[in-house]
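Recap for those who missed Tuesday's class. We walked through two folding examples back to back. For each one, the amino acid string is listed first and its predicted structure tokens come directly after. Nothing is annotated here on purpose, so try labeling regions yourself before you check the end of the notes.
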Amino acid sequence: MEKIVKDKRDEIARLCKKYGVKRLDVIGGVAVGLSGRGSRDLDFLASFHDPDAPTRGGWNSPQFKLAVDLEDLFEGELDRVVVGIEGEYKHPSVKPWIEKIREVVYADS
């Protein structure tokens, strides 16, 4: 996991608790050490304690609010922060790749 994420783990944990996140993983270029090679996106994969919560409320949903707060946290360091929901990536060619590179940033015990 890249330093950019490690340095903000405490703040990320605070946001995860705020929005009911059970587990948050980093995936994509930052997870595999490519952020210094032009990758300016940060991709997270989240699972929530309440499986219906992420999308409930539209723009007011925990998923959207978490993404906005994470973008604010990394403002000026990245171009984009994406928060996907655990289970969204079901395509047979994508799921094994995600399982291989995902790295836990936060897990509520």
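Example two. Treat it independently of the first, because the proteins are unrelated.
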Amino acid sequence: MKPSRPAVLLALVVVPALAVWVVLRLFYSTLPPLPWTAVPTFLLLAVGEVFSGVSTRNKILHRSAAESARPVDPLSVARMAVLGKASAHAAAALAGVFLGFVLFVAGDLDKPTLRHDFFVSAATALSALVLTGAGFFLEWCCRIPKGKDDKNPR
């Protein structure tokens, strides 16, 4: 597995944002108001991923006295890295979706429904970006540090 690249994550934000903006021009009037439920969900997932990342990094670097007796399970670290990459990519795409909503409704904030959707979509996009960063951090935490014996540093 190759590490996530910021350019790919940026593309995963921009392309869905533009696509959603185009689709909303046709179908926005048929949609119900956006719910707030994604905001705390994304933020709780981000907190969990940051905590897991710090814990995994400490285990890899043997920083915890209690964990130094037990070796790190490589399969667990690989699973955490895949979780970090997957959540960073999915959250970036979702951030793009909600930024598309922000772009669409930003022009008419004097109407209550559009103003509500603007604030909900902006908060959801921001929390999805936080989750993207947390997933990227979790993926970074799962990297094995380069040792002095490595002949082929990456």
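Answers for example two:
The chain has a mean pLDDT of 88.
Residues 50 and 134 are 6 Å apart (CA to CA).
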